[in-house]
Known about the structure:
Layout: E1 6-11, H1 41-53, E2 60-64, H2 68-74, E3 83-86, H3 91-107, E4 112-117, E5 121-123, H4 125-142, E6 145-150, E7 161-171, E8 174-183, H5 188-197, E9 200-210, H6 211-221, H7 223-232, H8 245-250, E10 256-260, E11 264-266, H9 273-278, E12 285-287, E13 289-293, E14 299-302, E15 308-312, E16 317-322, E17 325-330, H10 337-346
Parallel strand pairs: 1-2, 1-4, 2-3, 6-10, 12-14, 13-15, 14-16
Antiparallel strand pairs: 4-9, 5-11, 6-9, 7-8, 7-9, 8-10, 16-17
Helix pairs in contact: 3-6, 3-7, 6-7
Amino acid sequence: MAMAMIVPVILAGGKGERFWPLSRQDRPKQFLKILPEGKSLIRATAERLVPLAEGWDGLFVATSRALASKILEELPELPPENLILEPEPKDTAAAVAWTTLQVRARYGEDAVLGLFPADHYIAPAEAFRSAVADGAGYAHEQGAILTFGIYPTHPATGYGYIERGESAGLVGELSVYKVSRFTEKPDRAKAEAYLETERFYWNSGIFVFPVRTMLEELKHHAPDVIGPLETLGAEGFSKVPRTSIDYAVMERTERAYVIPAPFTWDDLGDWTALERLLGSEGRNVELAKHIGIDTNGAIIYATAKDEVVVTLGLEDVVIVRDGNVTLVAKKSRIQEIKSLLKRFKQEQGFENLA
Length: 354
């Protein structure tokens, strides 16, 4: 497999609303220090990618203008010119298109771009980097848009899925397949059916591709996204539709390939991820002073060290106390936090708490 130059870019423009109230507008999820080692999610992601980038000078972060100073505070080693700033949020299709254009301006169309969300837990780092490096070589040779599929361990309804198609050989020692299709987040019955086929993977949201390939696919499948950005630059953002890269390109392209990931992955999408991260399934996760009687399967978090959470007779709940907001929710409904937050923002006088 030929070596290919890879430009790693961290995607750090999201809000992470399902970690509310800890995650707020001025403190998105990627800055939360919920990992066992005490690092923020974006810090851990950057340190995992720096060896691939061959130093901080080769690492980039795509984010909003509003978060630029906070990212440089969290990643002081990152050159300020390595921030790729979006003038306004327009979902992932615009973010990918804008990032690809910026990388082309610096490195040309032959560069291989790697896009990595800021809020994933991945281990071991060495296996991850080896797989990405091999994948970059494959993407360069084949003109492919490569992603990593995660073996599903349960019928998750919070992830998108990838169905593998025919075998496309090996990438190093890893199998690679043509992508048959990308699917949206399914209901439980559909997710269970996916698992039974053994052909579906969770969509990791990690993409590796030559700059030229992504630009060609954007021009073919999403000209309304790439066109304004290529001709008008930053001013074109106002003309770009709000859509995801999965819908704009990945669900339509014939050049998508998937490698079953040889590493552990979790997107830390909501509070229940703490159970998996800390290995506490079936027991209480206590990130606060907690006194409880007959309380089981609870996730309890408090920001202030001197606050005490007292519970009685609770099962499978999430309790989060942060500043002047307390969340109490059933774990089974934690995916609905975004809807709750939308209503919360509409209530008179509560905008500053979101």
